[in-house]
Write a structure and sequence with these properties.
The chain is α/β, with parallel strands linked by helices and about 250 residues long. The chain is about 35% helix and about 20% strand.
Length: about 250
């Protein structure tokens, strides 16, 4: 094993005896739903799932979209996509916008029952003509199929949107605003049917509305807390590939 690799983490571990708020990201709450055992081993024992390399092209699309919408944010004007889709909205202006986009800060809410400092980094927030906030998430892909939210694996995108809406509703800096149940996915689809690459990638961009329902979130947060305060490792989710892999490896090593 390389001397530079240590799968065990010593930071950001939950201590049931601590009175300090414990930062818990949207993605970790989602992990607790996906597999309680993986979640516990990560946040209590410091051994997370193996990470994957980041999708650099997706990040590039995100960054360029943010720059594009920020131009209109500074002008107080709607983006062409908004008018194309008949949305009477403009990018939301707020001094903390960059903080809310920061992966390590995001929109935050201190959950009183658990003392979890819940957070998640939004891609954008728009505001409509009635001063309702619209949570916006950017997505990038390349497919010949029609872009929809119907595939089962995109349920995680829907939960992501719902969690951001939940955070915005409970964030003290956004308390005077109403957060709309309807958020928007700005979906960029890289086109592969061009005659040549010519050093550029063209995208078709679609704005997809989604009406969120965050009724699951309170139970999910409370269950995540229940897992972490216990000294008993939870049972794995039956569909967890990581837990099945560990079990099979253990069989081979015994």
């Amino acid at each position: 094993m390389s001397e530079f690799y240590n799968p065990r983490r010593t930071r950001n571990l939950y201590d049931p005896e601590s009175k300090e708020p414990f930062k818990l990201s949207r993605s970790k709450v989602d992990l607790s739903l996906e597999c309680p055992r993986c979640f516990y081993i990560d946040r209590r024992r410091g051994v997370g799932r193996p990470s994957c390399p980041g999708f650099s092209l997706n990040s590039a699309v995100d960054n360029l979209l943010k720059k594009e919408f920020d131009i209109k944010r500074a002008e107080g004007k709607p983006h062409l996509l908004m008018t194309t889709y008949g949305l009477k909205a403009v990018p939301f202006q707020h001094p903390k916008m960059e903080e809310w986009r920061d992966t390590f800060k995001g929109v935050q809410y201190l959950h009183p029952e658990t003392n979890f400092l819940l957070f998640g980094a939004v891609d954008d927030i728009w505001i409509d003509e009635n001063d309702n906030l619209l949570i916006v998430d950017y997505k990038a892909t390349s497919t010949e199929k029609e872009i929809t939210l119907d595939e089962e694996w995109k349920d995680c995108y829907k939960r992501q949107m719902e969690f951001y809406q939940y955070l915005a509703r409970h964030n003290e800096d956004l308390g005077k605003y109403k957060v709309s149940d309807t958020g928007y996915f700005v979906y960029c689809n890289g086109q592969k049917d061009r005659e040549a690459f010519d050093g550029r990638l063209d995208f078709d961009i679609k704005v997809i509305p989604y009406k969120g329902n965050g009724d699951w979130i309170e139970d999910a947060v409370l269950n995540a807390h229940k897992y972490l305060i216990s000294d008993i490792i939870p049972e794995p989710h039956p569909d967890c590939d990581f837990c099945r892999y560990r079990e099979e490896v253990e069989k081979e090593l015994t």
